[in-house]
Amino acid sequence: MSKRNPKILKIFLYMLLLNSLFLIIYFVFHSSSSSSSSSPEQPNPHISLVRFHVSVNNNQSAIQKPWPILPSYLPWTPPQRNLPTRSCEGYFGNGFTKRVDFLKPMIGGEGSWFRCFYSETLQSSICEGRNLRMVPDRIVMSRGGERLEEVMGRREEEELPEFRDGAFEVAEEVSSRLGFKRHRRIGGGGGNDVISRRLVNDELLNEYVQEGGIGRHTMRGLVASIRAVDSKDFVCEEWVEEPTLLITRFEYANLFHTVTDWYSAYVSSRVTGLPNRPHVVFVDGHCTTQLEETWTALFSGIRYAKNFTKPVCFRHAILSPLGYETALFKGLTGDIDCKGESAQNLWQNPDDKRTARISEFGEMIRAAFGFPVNRHRSSERPPSSSSSSVHNVLFVRREDYLAHPRHGGKVQSRLINEEEVFDSLHHWVASGSTGLTKCGINLVNGLFAHMSMKDQVRAIQDASVIIGAHGAGLTHIVSATPNTTIFEIISVEFQRPHFELIAKWKGLEYHAMHLANSRADPTAVIEKLKEIMKSLGC
Asked: What residue stretches are annotated with the Glycosyltransferase 61 catalytic domain (predicted)?
């Protein structure tokens, strides 16, 4: 034994040195920010803002939440090598490598600038600008942020923004540019004549902010509305000093589509090197939903564009791509051949066919709600046993609920005998006849429509196995821990790859039961679950 001690000691010291080096590199990259980012005040961890501060002719700054430390985090700095167009990092990470400057900073660094980072892989852009002026009167849409009950029956067309010319403005010196035209300013500045030019023409829009089959590309419409005005006509009474994401949403009440919006916002924040979590302005007229709980947890504050009663200027604005332009959505119709891998393995052995970005994002959601992300789920002991562990088996249910102003309150059933299947599982567990000798089962009834978003995420992270019929609620598996098993029941009418792909991109074990119709055999479900539990060591 004494001969082995020096060898064991050397191995221990080597591992300690390796981990210390990894942490040093992590903190160096984590604390760095782009030259365009402002220098914020130190955030107060005890304060959480919902509506952020607007300063009036001053430099006051609102509290910004810091980024949490995430085990799956990898640096978002531009890659040191040319990424293959269809690499996993190109799809899920920093593939926005082509920088296009539409307005360069003035000499001395004052005034406005505007640029986009284009991804050849996703064929979309993350854009950002300094000193960007928004004129709410030139955005045609409903006010947004109302309670659902107040706007029942409102048409979707009323909620989506229509941008008039000059809905957004930047400042530049007239003498330095060509193409300026004199016109009469309407809304947000009186009726005086101003000189302006369109910042991004149709040719450049077609190249860097492509429609991509989206019938009404609202972010493209926003960029098309930006006008460059003479500096003397660029007057701001209200300023938002903190970095702010400008986001337009479509299917805002659907969890899957909202997760694509969250992911796009997260990626945009990282790619532009924000040192803290940004604020969010919804440039749409949708009413509030339960999902805003997670928006508020993820970012430093949220607000609706029409909440501003007069023109407002953003010191640093970031335009987040539509959720439809993320790999989470594009993977439904295209082959994104990526597999989940741990960040530590990818740091040591980069692999263009593997990714840790979805795991990183899931940890971000859990950390935003204050859940620990630096440890795996721990098994509990059942009250009747001193040796066996208990595994939570979460059954994600589909319930009727009122989703949006055009919704009747009824959800489409994907499993017509869902109640029967759950009751059979409950009886199987409660009767003690599972046949599993090495562990117990705690069956969790996932009635998500009646749970807060925080409680939903808690149920996901505590589950060893997640069962459910195909439905948006299963999108929560983005926040599942690395050793979670997914069991999806798929009816003949809903054979779509949403959750199989997410499981694959996270590296989770995935099982599917394909039905001949919309009815599942409860006995077959029990047998499949028993097989899964045995694979977990039960």
From this structure: 369-486
Mean pLDDT of 500-520: 97
- Strand, coil or helix: 444: strand
Q: 149-183 burial, b for 16+ CB within 10 Å, e for fewer?
A: eebeebeeeebbbebebbbbbbbbebeeeeebeee
384 pLDDT above the threshold of 80: no
The answer for residues whose C-beta is within 8 angstroms of residue 523's C-beta and 6 or more apart is: 424
**Tens digits of residue pLDDT in 288-301:** 999 999 999 999 99
Residues 6+ apart with CB under 8 A from 130: 36, 105, 111, 112, 113, 114, 315, 316
Give the other-Cβ count within 10 Å of 504's Cβ: 19
C-alpha angle 127-128-134 in degrees, rounded to nearest 5: 110
Q: In DSSP terms, which residues pair with 130 in a beta bridge?
A: 113, 316
pLDDT reading at 191 higher than 60 = no
Other beta carbons less than 10 A from residue 419's beta carbon: 10
pLDDT for residue 72 is more than 90: yes
* Cβ atoms < 10 Å from Cβ of 508: 22
Pairing of strands 113-119, 124-134: antiparallel
The structure tokens 């499981």 sit at 503
Produce one character per residue of 64-73: b if its CB has 16 or more CB atoms within 10 Å, e if not.
bbebeebbbb
Closest CA to 441 of 530, 351, 375: 530
Burial of 193 (0-12, 13-18, 19+ CB in 10 A): exposed
Span 210-241, pLDDT tens digits: 998 888 999 999 999 999 999 889 989 899 99
pLDDT in tens, 433-451: 888 888 999 999 999 988 9
Question: Hey, is 194 helix, strand or coil?
Answer: strand
Measure Cα distances from 347 to 297, 350, 476, 486 in Å: 28, 6, 26, 27
Q: How far apart are CA 488 and CA 466, in angstroms?
A: 8
Give the dihedral sign, CA 513/516/519/521.
Answer: negative
> For 84-103, how does the pLDDT look when each residue is reduced to its tens digit (9 = 90+)?
888 999 999 889 999 999 99
Output the pLDDT for position 83: 78
Spatial distance between the Cα atoms of 223 and 169, rounded to a whole number of angstroms: 10
Least confident interval from 180-184, 288-292, 296-300, 401-405: 180-184
* CA pair distance 319, 244, nearest whole angstrom: 9
Do 324 and 471 touch, CB atoms closer than 8 A?
Answer: no
Q: Which two tokens stand for residue 255?
A: 């969890």
Three-state secondary-structure class, residue 323: helix
* Predicted TM-score (pTM) of this structure: 0.85
- Please give the radius of gyration of the chain, using alpha carbons only, rounded to the nearest integer: 25
Q: Please, which pLDDT band fits residue 393 given cuts at 50, 70 and 90?
A: very high
Q: Which of 250, 226, 273 is nearest to 322 (CA)?
A: 250
- Rounded to the nearest 10 degrees, what angle do helices 357-368 and 453-461 cross at? 130
DSSP helix/strand/coil, 116: strand
The helix (H) or strand (E) run that includes residue 238 is strand 238-240
